[in-house]
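Hi all, a correction to my earlier message: I attached the wrong file for DUF4339 domain-containing protein. Here's the right sequence:
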Amino acid sequence: MSNARFHLSSGGKVYGPYDTETLARFVAEKRLAHHSLVAPEGTQDFRPALQFPELRALFRPGSGEEHRAAPSPSSEGPSAAFLVAFGRASSEASKAADILRRLPSCHEITETVFLVRAAGSADELRERIAGALPSTERAFVMEASGAAIASHGIALAEHEDIRTMIKGG
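and the right structure:
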């Protein structure tokens, strides 16, 4: 593993720098995705993590997260209820909301908050909508049971605070 160090940009804030070993742990913890914005230490060249050769190995099969096409909505397999919230109403959030509306069960609570039933995990549902969202758009996916959460565009520290709050810690 390289000894390169990277800053993370999330929710308008910059974190780090982190070495590749720490970033590998973030991938395993689902706190860093292939589309997360990172920049080498000493630069402001923020790009999706997968674009940096030093980080590509983190997203190969067996490394904690695979880079693959987002799964399409499916009615196969067991489904769970999810709460999905976008940071603000925008054309990008509207595109992601259209993906949610195509699911067999979708209840639009507000323009930016949805309750949906879908197969898969919170991470898989987030991946379904992430392609329609720019890195500046905030989105939050929580399994209604509170067992799992996933976020897009939310700072790592904020994500962990939310996880702690939900779990009652």
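Sorry for the mix-up. Residues 62-76 have pLDDT under 50 and may be disordered.
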